Amino acid sequence: MNKQVTICGAGLVGSLLAIFLKRQNMDVRVFEKRPDPRKSEVHAGRSINLAISQRGLRALGEAAPGLEKQALALAVPMYGREIHDLNGELHFQAYGETSQHINSIGRAALNELLISTAEQLGVPFSFDLSCSDYDAANQQWIFTSASHEIIKTLPQEILIGADGAFSTVRAMLSKKSAAQPVVDTLDYAYKELEIYSKEATRLTNKEALHIWPRERFMLIALPNADGSYTATLFLPLQGEISFEKLNSPEAIHDFFNTYFADACKLIPNLTEQFSIHPTSKLFTVHTNEWFNTHTLLIGDAAHALVPFYGQGMNAGFEDCRILAEIISTSKEIHWKNIFAEFYRQRKVNADAISDLALKNFIEMRDHVADAEFLVRKQIEKYLHQVIPDIFVPQYTLVSFTDTPYAEAMQAGIEQDAMFEEIMQIENIAASWPTEALQEQVLATVRQYAIK
Ligand code: FAD
Questions:
Q1: 275 with 423, same domain?
Q2: Taking 80 as the threshold, does the pLDDT of residue 449 lie above it?
Q3: Band of pLDDT at residue 57, cut at 50, 70 and 90
Q4: Are residues 34 and 155 in the same domain?
Q5: Rounded CA gap, 116 and 114, in Å?
Q6: Is 223 in the pocket of ligand 1 (CB under 6 A)?
Q7: Is the CB of 10 under 6 A from ligand 1?
């Protein structure tokens, strides 16, 4: 039985996977191309903070005792979206029931917690070692340090590629394949801007994800544990209102004053930050080549997605939980069978959350400010309260349950069809919630439940 596993990448997913596998008595080691994030100032990844919800928390809870609690101690709860309209007025939209929330957590702090936990369990991490090639003749993966030192995996050793959206392991796996990975790039990019804790005191709701939706673009801000916020601007790369046009301090100031006047006051050094911080592209990666006899892709390496549902890491953590579950329920460790089963269970769900994430971009930047959409959200909340066994909003399925993403997607398609009909009910948008309208809505839902 081959229990020697090398994980390529000590990001969020690779580090969590190391914990799961070590606790299953595997002989695990991790190679990471960057320096140890606990000893360097270099950011461990792309966004500064992220939202962790049910799927991610469950995986942490199952990986090691106390890990979920330790992670939550680093996080700030977010109970809903605080919408900033063009006039600077605020409208709060709860994510679910009163107590339901997602959590904003610092990427670096979470990554460091996972690496330290894995190390305490006895997993060796080697930093500054980059997976650079695959020697097919000798069935070995080759890792290279900055000083050109070369380390090779043992022939037949298992390698799991958790090396993120730009995965080298993925490139090697699909080298000889006719179907190459497809990278769908959005014509949008993002830029992060810090709102320091001094100015952040002006944001009254600390436990919310702030959004400035402006139809074709948007700004969002997630709270950090130290009282600051990290804002992210999502904007087309080119066109009338785009990153391309924000090419001078005046243009940047005019743009923020016009569309995000209240946010502009929160970032006194806006133009300086704008010029220093990178503008990063957004894309989805689709590939069918997730595994071969000795190699598997996991997390973003297998299925990078756009960040609009806040699910990329959550999906990657769920990958780790499910891989561990498949291993623990296998009678013997036959890796190719395990990888094939993992692919069978996860690919369809990875595809679903990739699609849902793209769809949620339109909801966040555009619909959340739309009056009819807001009524729909109120009706959804009402339905979930009175008939929770029949109606669960799609957002709840994705963020607050472990319902497979593909099922959540299908539920959303059915809910959209049902709401097409509900929103045709006379006076629904203007008069909701009268008793008569509630009756009519319930009747429509029951019809759909029977179908
Ligand atoms: P990564 O975090 O990219 O880690 C990969 C690791 O592999 C890195 O440490 C890298 O240095 C290393 N590596 C790369 N190449 C090599 C190599 N050749 N050899 C050795 N090591 C290598 N997800 C959420 O769930 N919620 C959110 O709110 C959220 N917000 C996001 C916001 C933005 C702007 C973006 C871009 C993403 C967001 N995500 C979010 C997605 C989330 O960041 C990713 O899904 C998550 O980081 C994936 O983890 P990973 O470990 O698979 O990849």
A1: no
A2: no
A3: very high
A4: yes
A5: 6
A6: no
A7: yes
3-state SS, residue 2: coil
pTM of whole model > 0.90? yes
**What pLDDT, in 10s, does the model give residues 233-287?**
999 999 999 999 999 999 999 999 999 999 999 999 999 999 999 999 999 999 9
Cα 300 to ligand 1 centre (Å):
6
Ligand 1 site, residue 13, Cβ cutoff 6 A:
yes
DSSP characters over 140-200? EEEEEETT--EEEPPTT-EEEE---TT-HHHHHHTTT-SS--EEEEEEEEEEEEEE-HHHH
Check whether residue 241 and residue 335 sit in a common domain: no
Do 296 and 435 belong to one domain?
no
Domain count, the chain: 3
Q: Is residue 292 part of a domain?
A: yes
CB of 6 closer than 8 Å to CB of 157: yes
Based on the domain organization, do 163 and 222 belong to the same domain?
Answer: no
Q: Which of 13, 58, 163, 353 to mutate to test the pocket of ligand 1 (most atoms within 8 A of CB)?
A: 163
Q: Is 17 in the pocket of ligand 1 (CB under 6 A)?
A: no
Over pLDDT 90: what percentage of the chain? Answer: 89
Write out the residue range of the structural domain in which residue 380 sits.
Answer: 370-450
- Sign of the Cα pseudo-torsion (313, 411, 93, 61, in order): negative
Distance 102 CA to ligand 1 centre (A): 19
**Ligand 1 contact via 9 beta carbon (within 6 Å):** yes
- Asked if residue 10 has pLDDT above 70, the reply is yes
Tell me, using a 6 A CB cutoff, whether residue 96 lines ligand 1: no
Mean pLDDT rounded to a whole number for the chain? 94
163 pocket-lining for ligand 1 (C-beta < 6 Å)? yes
In ligand 1, the atom with minimum distance to the C-alpha of 143 is 19
> Which whole number is the average pLDDT over 419-430?
94
Domain assignment present for 133: yes
Report if residue 219 sits inside a domain.
Answer: yes
Tell me the CA–centroid distance for residue 11 and ligand 1, in Å. 6
**Do residues 351 and 265 share a domain?**
no
**Ligand 1 centroid – CA 47 distance (Å):** 9
Q: Is the pLDDT of residue 434 over 80?
A: yes
The reported pLDDT for the residue numbered 142 is 97
Query: Which of 256, 282, 308 is the last residue in one of the domains?
Result: 282
Question: Domain ends where: 230, 251, 282?
Answer: 282
Ligand 1 lined by 47 (C-beta under 6 Å): yes
Q: Under the phi-then-psi rule, with left for phi > 0, alpha for psi from -120 to 50, and beta for the rest, what region is 79?
A: alpha
C-beta of 104 in contact with ligand 1 (< 6 A): no
Q: How high is the pLDDT of residue 47?
A: 67
How long a stretch of residues is the chain? 451
Q: What is the dihedral angle through the alpha carbons of 105, 108, 114, 118, rounded to the nearest 10 degrees?
A: -170
Is residue 86 in a domain? Answer: no
